[in-house]
C-alpha cells in the first residue's frame, strides 16, 4: 500500500508541475531584454501599465469582499431577528427595593406593600423637663450672667442636690 501511495504522489507532483508550466507559458510570455534605451523605457511603461491594472483589480476585489461580508452580517442579523434569538447583553447588578422587585415580577397583580417604614406608627415624643427648661431660658447671655462668679457656682451645686 505504501508503494502504491508513493507512486500516486509522484504522479500528482508531475501533473502539478506540467500544469504550472502550461499556465506560465500561457500567461507569462518569455522575457526578452531590449538592447537600446528607448526599448527599455517602452518595456518599463508596459510593466507600469500592467502593475496599475493589477492594483485596480486588487482594489475592486477588496471592495467586493467588504461588500459581501457586510451583506453576510446583515443577513445573519435578519436571521437572528426572525428566529427570535438575540445576543444577551452582559447583565449588571441593580439595587432594587422589595416593592420594585415584586412589581417587576408580578406586574399588575402586585398589591402587597413591602415598605415597612410606611407601616410604622408615629409616636409623639413627650416634652421632658430639661427641654422645657431650655425653651424657657430664652436669652443665653442672661443664663451665663447668673452662673458667673461664686454665687452662680453655689446655685449649680444647690440645684443638683
TrEMBL record:
Task: Report if keyword Hydrolase is assigned.
Answer: no
Pfam families with a match to the protein in the record:
Troponin
Alphabetically, which GO biological process terms does the record hold?
cardiac muscle contraction; skeletal muscle contraction
UniProt region (Disordered), positions on chain:
1-22
Question: Which InterPro entries does its entry note?
Answer: Troponin, Troponin_I, Troponin_sf
Q: Which UniProt keywords apply?
A: Acetylation, Actin-binding, Muscle protein
Top-level lineage group: Eukaryota
Q: Which GO terms describe its molecular function?
A: actin binding
Please give an example of a GO cellular component term from this record: troponin complex
Listed name of the protein: Troponin I, cardiac muscle
Amino acid at each position: 500500500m505504501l508503494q502504491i501511495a508513493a507512486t500516486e504522489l509522484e504522479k500528482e507532483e508531475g501533473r502539478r508541475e506540467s500544469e504550472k508550466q502550461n499556465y506560465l507559458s500561457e500567461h507569462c510570455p518569455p522575457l526578452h531584454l531590449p538592447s537600446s534605451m528607448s526599448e527599455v523605457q517602452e518595456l518599463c511603461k508596459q510593466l507600469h501599465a500592467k502593475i496599475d491594472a493589477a492594483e485596480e483589480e486588487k482594489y475592486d476585489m477588496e471592495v467586493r469582499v467588504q461588500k459581501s461580508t457586510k451583506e453576510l452580517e446583515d443577513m445573519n442579523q435578519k436571521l437572528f431577528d426572525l428566529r427570535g434569538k438575540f445576543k444577551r447583553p452582559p447583565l449588571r447588578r441593580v439595587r432594587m427595593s422589595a416593592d420594585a422587585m415584586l412589581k417587576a415580577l408580578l406586574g399588575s397583580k402586585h398589591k402587597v406593600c413591602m415598605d415597612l417604614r410606611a407601616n410604622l406608627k408615629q409616636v409623639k415624643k413627650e416634652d421632658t423637663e430639661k427641654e422645657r427648661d431650655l425653651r424657657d431660658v430664652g436669652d443665653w447671655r442672661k443664663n451665663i450672667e447668673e452662673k458667673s462668679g461664686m454665687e452662680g457656682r453655689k446655685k449649680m451645686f444647690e440645684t443638683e442636690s
